[in-house]
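Suppose a classmate hands you a notebook page containing two proteins, each written out with its sequence and a corresponding row of structure tokens. How would you begin to make sense of it? This section walks through that situation. The first entry is reproduced here exactly as it would appear on such a page.
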Amino acid sequence: MSTPPDATQLFDLTDTVAVITGGSRGLGREIAFAFARFGATVVVSSRKLEACESTAAEIRESCGVEAHAVACHVGRWDDCDRLIEAVVDRCGRIDVLVNNAGMSPLYESLPAVSEELFDKVIGVNLKGPFRLSALAADHMVAQGGGSIINVSSIAAVEPSKNEVPYGLAKAGLNALTVALAHMYGPAVRVNGIMPGPFMTDITNAWDLDEFAETARTRIPLGRGGEPNEIVGAALYLASRASSYTTGSIIKIDGGFAWSPA
């Protein structure tokens, strides 16, 4: 039996090309920087090219690795096709795809949810990851392997009244994760991360006093997550450390989901 690699080698992403959608802000940005620090070539993608370019420049300067910016609205099929084509053209391969882009617009009531809003939520949170995963997985199979990480939400299992379409889309993303793991194994591993409330720029729209009370009474760890607390799971799933992990959904929520009301 060969000697297993040490922990540093297990998490090493040198010579790996990683694509992160929604990579210019929030959890996606944290994941992009983490991958870069462990040696990956990073492709930062989001709707706004300027934000992607700024983040990629920061990564190059602070981490000393190659980083690219590609604009993509993942809710648009053609944009997804162009993103995968651009990555293959520039980098020659795709080793890790992180489907992180998401949206959950507010609405007054379920009857007030317009068809346009519903379609946008499903498009960004489910249709885009479906298309990107299908395209990336084919490249990964041809090159001998890869990892797809779908960033879901605890709304997939406990949607609040304010995130019903979002919860539906994320539940679909969890199902997609399991389906793709079976379809593309053993070459491609497909897993999910199911975050709870994280203290990113999304909190600008929250009533923070109300959230503090919710955290005190409903979250066993008593607080929201800090963005860097997503990094461990993402690195694990992207690297050889998770070589026997596929079709899994890792819940990172401070214990929020399924806790007593």
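The notebook's second entry, a different protein, reads as follows.
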Amino acid sequence: MIFDKLIIYILKHLPKFIIRLIAGKPEIIDGNQLDPNIQIVAKIAANKISNNRITVEDYRNDAIELEKIAAKKLKEIKIYDQEVNLCDSVNKIRVYSPKRVYNKMPAILFFHQGGLVLFDHLTNDHFCSLLSKICNAKVISLNYRRCPEVNFPQPIEDCLNLWNYIQSNSEIYGIDQNRVALAGDSAGGLISLTLSVELKFKKIKPIAVCVAYPWVTTSMENQNSLITCANTFPLSRETVDFFRQTVFPNEININHKWANPLAREDLTDLPPIIIATAGFDPIRDQGNLFAEKIKKNGNIVKHFFFKNLSHSFCILGSISKEVDRANFKIASELKSFL
């Protein structure tokens, strides 16, 4: 794997024409052309991903392989880890702080990807550190409980409890409780958007929401990207189906409002929302539909469509300069609201 990481690092810094030669015939789906660096890494990953994944452990083992090539945190960002008591569970958090720390800083609560089944609070280490640097904010990443060890909606309950915990302990963390944003990718996007609706009538509500390639519905209808992007890297239609079956066994809670922000009727008066979607992503269409719906409901929305990137691009900064530019753009937009 060390050799693979070296290859990936070198690929990122090669001239574009050499990258295109190595990548071969461009991968084009729905008129979008995949970033050639990601195309090359997808080929490398294909040799490491099992074709016989059945159990949760099988999928988690493959997720570990993806994490090995994830970009690392920025060195100048300080971190510390701790455990916090969130009502009925004890959860790990990682707190990221920029160089310049002062009292009553803005904060970002971050919820990681993984279909509510995979990964943990360290998966997006680089992106969380980037958010901390660009936004000059403290970022708190939560290791919420995952399915099937717990049942839906307990993972989201953990995240709601983190919001309440930080609000109650804002002075201890040096945080301005009126400047706390929510952020997350994929399933973490689902969590952030669900909380934004649940908290909108609170005295103190999120100042902004920032999500990337969010999962916003359990419905599989009217989404052409589930067909055209069925075999994309790193998220495939088969993995989408696995998440649905694992989080909602026998379809228990599959229509729960917390799992379906796209279907909700109460999407007015939300905080400003930054939403990023990717061209090579089975759940691309549902993210785009959600962006359109919240715009029509009169909310402040900044929607960025990165047509040449894939699902999970937030962790792929070690692979592609295009990813770096996308991540910087997203972080910079969130800064404007903090």
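A careful reader of the second entry would note: The CA atoms of residues 306 and 326 lie 7 Å apart.
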